[in-house]
Amino acid sequence: MNYKAQGAPKMGRNAPRHAEHNAPGSDKDPFGERAGGRPSKAELLKRMKAAQDERAKKDGGEG
Predict the structure, then answer these.
(1) What is the pLDDT of residues 19-60, one digit of tens each?
(2) CA 58, CA 15: separation in Å to the nearest integer?
(3) Helix ranges, the chain (H)
(4) Against a cut of 0.70, is the pTM above it?
(5) CA–CA dist 48, 46 (Å, integer)
(6) Domain boundaries along the sequence of the chain
(7) Separation CA 55–CA 49 (nearest Å)
């Protein structure tokens, strides 16, 4: 029986389609300086909590 013709899963294609030319850590942006640097984890959490509070206010309560 020919399992290839049956549509067996193709493994090993878990790669991004392309790489950004100015990604943090690349030659064009080695230290992530293009947008003021990468935000710290504390800054991200603060922003996420603020968005959650704003969404809770807009929805009229906790979800």
Answers:
(1) 777 777 677 776 666 667 677 899 899 999 999 999 999 887
(2) 39
(3) 3-6, 41-59
(4) no
(5) 6
(6) 25-62
(7) 10
